[in-house]
Predict the structure.
Amino acid sequence: MSDCVLVTGGAGYVGSHVCLALAKAGFTPVVYDDLSNGHAEFVQWGPLEQGDIRDGARLDAVIAEHRPVAVLHFAALIEVGESLREPGRFFDNNVGGAITLIEAARRGGIGVMVFSSTCAIFGNPVSLPMAEGHPRAPLSPYARSKLQIEEALADYDRYVGFRSVCLRYFNAAGADEQGRIGERHEPESHAIPLAIQTALGLRQGFKVFGADYETRDGTAVRDYVHVADLADAHLRALKYLLAGGETNAFNLGTGTGTTVSELIEAIQRGADQPFPVEIVGRRQGDPTCLVADSSRARETLGWRPTRTLDDIVRTAWRWHRAEMDRGRRGSAQG
């Protein structure tokens, strides 16, 4: 059996960390990415095939060349605010692209997929922590696009036997322990990178969107899970499917909620310096509290997150400080 797997969006944040985990486990990750949001320098553990997931002919050619045994699908537009302004673009890329990819996989004899989903499919929590059976009420086109792919995958299994695992992340965070890859979005909209960049003096201030939530300090609560722990979950999901496991979905988080204020305090401790914080109004589509119940992943995949919030901050701080230094060296050379 081939040890090759196709990783769409493998030049991105989570995808590249999964490629690292795959390589350590003896797989060869073939990254398929259009590099619109990914970074070629993040592709370090296998070949890069550039292409759009909506391009069926290109997918057919890549699959025919590498003969992967499975697909891990990360390629997607992810900015919630952008999805509110351009919903059609998100449904075209995220849903249309996923269907094109699934069909190409089936034509190429691939019968399994691990799909990068999100806890955003649930919307505002009805109960906490949030288990897989929680009601689904997405608050944005981005979240709805992910839910529609999950529903399509369920039908693909039901009617044609194409099996999948959907992994619903809560808040991915942190970076590779050795600093080889980390979190880089353009433009950046994620809390931890923005706060660290503020602490490094690269931004003038960090905005807290809403301090009037019904939480212990008024700021929103999120479940931050280290990206290396998420990568381990993908590896386990892949092995589960290759061993004949049934289609399933798993919520991935630590089960511990952190408020935005507590996150700021952790980053200020890690940076050993305060930074300016501004309270502004809530953003449309932001739930009050998101905390995972990951017991199904523990019981079925044997997955347990092992890294703490301090580990997240430490590895993220190291990555972003190195990024700043690289940028300065590049400017000096230019």
Remarks:
- Residues 309-333 form the longest helix (25 residues).
- The mean pLDDT is 94.
- Residues 4-174+225-252 form a domain with the Rossmann fold fold (CATH 3.40.50.720).
- The chain is about 40% helix and 15% strand.
